[in-house]
């Protein structure tokens, strides 16, 4: 799960670092937090705590609270937030605490609606150009609750109150999905269409006008288009599908591969079997093998029989492996793996020293990270390839957990899913830097994987993962086998 875009949006909204903080201030704090020694961090924390006793600006105090959290002083951050909320009841911190402690404690739509009305009465929605994401988060939840309870009128009423055009698809699409599950396609369609229109508005802005909001709005665009194409197909409106997808590809050519699944179906329905098969080839070569039955169907239709299909797939497999061999170069790096000593699920210490002489596959993950979880069947398949290879060790390093009882949750998750993984808890801070292993390695998104050679040198580092089991297995094999070879000088 990549968090760079999320951070960028939060920064844009001003809810992480208040606008009173200068760029220099932000840069200085970030530098110390990322690369400072423990002594430098403690000095900065002391400076910030001293400032809290003088400042009477709730926005600045919120900024300091966020800095303290970023620097690992969660308790001090929480304490400061509580003080500010009590002393400045109209502040953004007080608003946030109301949303967390009052609004989200409600269960029914009616109770949430009452809390929403109290929220905007006590903290009116600004009429300025200030980004109003905090209110849209709540509106999104409120609309979903009404939709889940079957109150379509109320759900649509509150959807119309969404403030931010770049964000409102996050409210529209979940409600549209609920309507679809309830069999109400007529109500769902306009919401999906509006989501597409909003994304296209930002995608087509002149480059100089595009910002983080544009990037965020465009992220879901392929999914919205594919969903609408699927609805049109089910309605028998095949003539509407191709123009929809071809327009999307023209507007977002860099995302063309994300439309391939919907595009192949539209081409097949239009009787353009060769082009449909070509789209599936693109999907296959990118590591998604689930459409192999469809490929066989199209291949047979084009050739009159399935003779030669296995050889055709074998050629594609060679292309896939070649593509993997070519693209893993972008993951190449060369840095020493920092020393570590972490606890496993049994409470036993596992150190880097104890793994000396092995090729290591480090997979940083968290129980809440869906891309991490989706990659696990593939990672298990990759690990199974090396079960009898004593020179290769997979380590699944649990990091960034949010719950206090994370160890119990992690153990339960691994046990329930019967994953034969060596799991380590990344919760031991380095006494010199105050960083956990993920931070020392510069991890800024998970899943993050590192392939380490027998000398303890990280040879490959990659963030994100496919969810296709066979592709992950192939990619991991190529990475591991590459690392097994002596490094060229």
From TrEMBL:
Q: Name one Pfam family in it.
A: AhpC-TSA
Protein's organism = Sphingobacterium litopenaei
Query: Under which name does UniProt file this protein?
Result: Redoxin domain-containing protein
UniProt keyword Signal, yes or no: yes
User: In its keyword annotation, does this UniProt entry include Hydrolase?
Assistant: no
UniProt entry keywords in alphabetical sequence: Signal, TPR repeat
Please report the residue spans annotated as repeat (TPR): 222-255
Task: Cite the source lineage.
Answer: Bacteria, Pseudomonadati, Bacteroidota, Sphingobacteriia, Sphingobacteriales
The source's superkingdom equals Bacteria
Question: Which residues belong to any copy of the Thioredoxin domain?
Answer: 331-481
Return the InterPro entries for the record. AhpC/TSA, Thioredoxin-like_sf, Thioredoxin_domain, Thioredoxin_ResA/DsbE_sf, TPR-like_helical_dom_sf, TPR_rpt
| Record's signal peptide | 1-20
């Amino acid at each position: 799960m990549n968090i760079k875009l999320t951070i960028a949006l939060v920064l844009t909204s001003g809810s992480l670092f208040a606008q009173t903080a200068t760029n220099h201030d932000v840069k200085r704090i970030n530098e110390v937090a990322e690369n400072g020694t423990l002594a430098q961090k403690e000095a900065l924390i002391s400076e910030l705590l001293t400032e809290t006793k003088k400042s009477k600006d709730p926005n600045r105090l919120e900024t300091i609270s966020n800095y303290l959290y970023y620097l690992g002083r969660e308790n001090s951050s929480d304490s400061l937030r509580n003080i500010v909320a009590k002393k400045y009841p109209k502040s953004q911190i007080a608003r946030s605490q109301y949303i967390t402690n009052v609004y989200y404690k409600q269960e029914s739509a009616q109770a949430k609606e009452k809390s929403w009305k109290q929220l905007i009465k006590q903290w009116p929605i600004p009429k300025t150009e200030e980004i109003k994401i905090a209110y849209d988060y709540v509106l999104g939840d409120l609309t979903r609750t009404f939709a889940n309870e079957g109150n379509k009128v109320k759900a649509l009423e509150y959807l119309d109150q969404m403030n931010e055009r770049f964000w409102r698809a996050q409210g529209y699409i979940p409600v549209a999905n609920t309507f679809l599950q309830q069999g109400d396609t007529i109500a769902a369609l306009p919401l999906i269409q509006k989501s597409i229109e909003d994304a296209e508005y930002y995608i087509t802005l002149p480059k100089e006008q595009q910002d983080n909001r544009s990037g965020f709005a465009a992220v879901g665009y392929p999914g919205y288009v594919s969903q609408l194409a699927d609805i049109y197909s089910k309605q028998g409106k095949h003539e509407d599908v191709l123009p929809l997808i071809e327009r999307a590809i023209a507007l977002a050519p860099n995302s063309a591969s994300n439309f391939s699944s919907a595009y192949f179906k539209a081409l097949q329905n239009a009787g353009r079997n060769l082009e449909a098969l070509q789209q599936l080839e693109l999907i296959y070569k990118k590591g998604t093998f689930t459409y192999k039955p469809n490929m066989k169907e199209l291949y047979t239709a084009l050739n009159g029989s399935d003779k030669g299909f296995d050889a055709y797939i074998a050629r594609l497999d060679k292309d896939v492996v070649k593509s993997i061999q070519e693209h893993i170069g972008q993951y190449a790096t060369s840095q020493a793996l920092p020393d570590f000593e972490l606890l496993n699920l049994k409470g036993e210490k596992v150190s880097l020293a104890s793994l000396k002489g092995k090729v290591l596959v480090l997979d940083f993950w968290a129980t809440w990270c869906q891309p991490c979880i989706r990659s696990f069947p593939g990672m298990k398949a990759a690990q199974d390839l090396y079960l009898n290879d004593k020179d290769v060790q997979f380590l699944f390093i649990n990091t960034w957990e949010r719950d206090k009882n994370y160890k119990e949750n992690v153990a339960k998750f691994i046990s329930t899913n019967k994953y034969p993984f060596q799991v380590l808890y990344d919760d031991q801070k380095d006494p010199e830097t105050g960083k956990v292993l993920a931070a020392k390695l510069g991890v800024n998104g998970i899943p993050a994987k590192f392939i380490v050679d027998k000398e303890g040198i990280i040879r490959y580092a990659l963030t994100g993962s496919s969810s296709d089991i066979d592709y992950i297995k192939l990619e991991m094999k190529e990475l591991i086998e590459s690392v097994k070879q002596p490094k060229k000088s």
